[in-house]
Amino acid sequence: MPGNRLRWFAVFCGVCAVASLPAAEAENLQLQLRYRVETSAGSGRHHTLVRGETWKPTETAIIVCDVWDSHHCLNAVRRVEEFAPRLNEVLKRARQQYVTIIHAPSDCMQAYAGHPARMRASETPRAAVLPPDIGSWCTQIPAEKDAVYPIDQTDGGEDDDPAEHAQWEAKLKSLGRNPRAPWIKQSDLIEIDAQRDFLSDRGEEVWSILEQRGIKNVILTGVHTNMCVLGRPFGLRQMAKNGKHVVLMRDLTDTMYNPRRAPFVSHFTGTDLIVAYIEKYVCPTITSDQILGDKSPFRFSQDRRPQVVVVMAEDEYQTELTLPQFALEQLGRDFRVSYVFGSDTDRNDIPGLEVLDEADVAVISVRRRTPRAEQLALVRKYVQAGKPVVGIRTACHAFFIRNQAPPDGCAEWPEFDPQVFGGNYTGHYGNKLRPTIRIAEGVGDHPLLSGIGKQRFTSGGSLYKVSPLLSGATVLMKGRIEGQPEEPVAWTFPRADGGRSFYTSLGHVEDFENAAFVRLLRNAILAAAGLADGKGGQGPALKAAPGATGA
What we know:
By secondary structure, this protein is α/β, with parallel strands linked by helices. 27% of the residues lie in helices and 18% in strands. It is built from 13 helices and 17 strands. Strands 10-9-11-12-17-16-15-13-14 form a nine-stranded mixed sheet. The longest helix is centred in the N-terminal third of the chain and has 23 residues, at 74-96. It is elongated.
């Protein structure tokens, strides 16, 4: 009995100490929530937007989901060991601001029997009202009803090398652990404050802690996003559907995804696809630097993908459909890809261009838009920084409307074509006249033409009139229609700002069914990013071939 009284006294004092922390001493959390909104009902396309919010720390909790001490996937263990120290920093800083910390290593409560944080959780009074299914896994919420899940995880998502995995499994057996579920506690890289934190893997307990402490805002972090973080009784779906203001800390998480499964992208792109799915259908996301203040978002050391931003705002050639599909199939293993769509209701609005600040390569498919001045300023800023630009089809007349001034608050860039692409667009031949495309003279060995071959092909779109190009442009392909002079249809250009550009007037919806065009566009984006070409060499540069001219 004396021991029980002392135990109750310790837990009571711990709870009271935390509950009585002076809110005035805690700085409010200033957060930037990223979320996605459909461009119009049923479009399947989403604007990626950010909004600022101010959260009271005493009304906020961080739930650390399943950051176990081991795992059946060796690569998953390695990734946890890499991000766990950063997560521990976040928790330390959050405690200083009086945020409630709940550790939730599922199926591991036995390891914490008698631990003050475990006792504090189990002895928290049950909430007067519990959501009816708060103790259960949640596999879907109403917002996901018609959603298309982005990855195939039916194999469990292990991405280990088979031989290495066999060795890992043997090691787990030698340690007396179940190779399929070897975890027994939370990772030791995550500190548990015995005086303040909570330990629970039970939905009813976690919900009661939140209610008892007046928690309105919940941050989920941990592993694995596509499984536990989404579906656990204390996971994103349960928090979202039961009224908590929940976010995912997207840089301190991981997925179970095997790149040998659809959509056959890199492991890290698989995580990006899950994060995008969550932002569309479940809740917003934040990054750890928003808590830490003086750092950048965490990134795994093996995630070396450059970021490509694809900007689409045109009504003629369906690039809002063809370019995302191209990017998933052709770029998903090598790049982090972000999409920016023009508004479906206001042609002068291109929301989400702020992501250009993070871009390594910009792909432009825009036709005759005069964006809001602050949006076009983001494009100018990107170009003036000397970063690479890849343009297709209507990009040569992207940001101005002939004989029409931009509306109030909007801006134009009529010199975009010559300044960025070295072009001279003056119109096009008839839409029914299909041009024949060939490799230009003297550039057959140019790296951007690698894998394309010399066979001529027919484009699906009209031939643009672009001659003469500015000095310095290197023509890679030309097109011809009967009875008319040839026109350049693909070229590189060294810009005055020091950056380099690639442009092609190809890009009709039928061109994306042509292997030569697809390879050309992929080559150009690889070149812009300076990636390896798949043959062990440095990626092809956006430069002139010896002896090539702009003719």
